[in-house]
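Study both lines:
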Amino acid sequence: MGIISKLFKTAVFGGAGAGAGFAYWTRNSQFVPITHDDPIFSSAAYARYNPNRNPETMDLCVRKIPLNRIKPQLLEKEGKLVEAFCAGVWGGLGYAYQRSYLSKKYENDTTKHQLWSRQELQNNTYDVGTQITDHFEVVSKTPESIIVRCGDSPLKTGVRESDGLFEMAAKVNKEEGVAEFRLKSVFYQGLGKANGPPMPPHIEFLHRLYTKLWMESAIQKVVM
């Protein structure tokens, strides 16, 4: 979470004008309630990597875009919309700072099979097993959803101290005439028994701002 704190101290909160501009730019990305009835909590990945059912820090950000603004080719074949949205998350400007930071620290011969360059991130289809900048790995993929495991290097395959799941989802709602995009985060302590959620309130607040940044950046990949 140190990356998030540094990013917003230098970029978003550089001045009152910058903060107001960010708030306006992300005004259509809204957080909605998420409960343990959500399917992510009954997933195999959640059960495997949070064996003690430790408390979570969790949130769900939603953004709706009229279908007439979506690139037509992304609506022609099932699954293409969520792939493009996912590629927008990792290959977009919202992830550029973190990608550069992780590349300097962890890109080497051991991790060269992972996605590192912006071009790779923008063009990948994010099938299960895909590893991203030594910090994320795709653990589930459907025509409307891609879930990555986060919190530590994917080279650490067992239960981790810091762990979590991050879902990118895209669904067409023809009745409303919109495409609905979702970013869902669930963070937890994997090892041992935790007394509370892993993030203090101020870090959770910064994480939500970062999520909005990812959302708006990713949307640019799917609109005309």
Summary: The first strand starts at residue 30 and ends at 31. The chain has seven helices and seven strands.
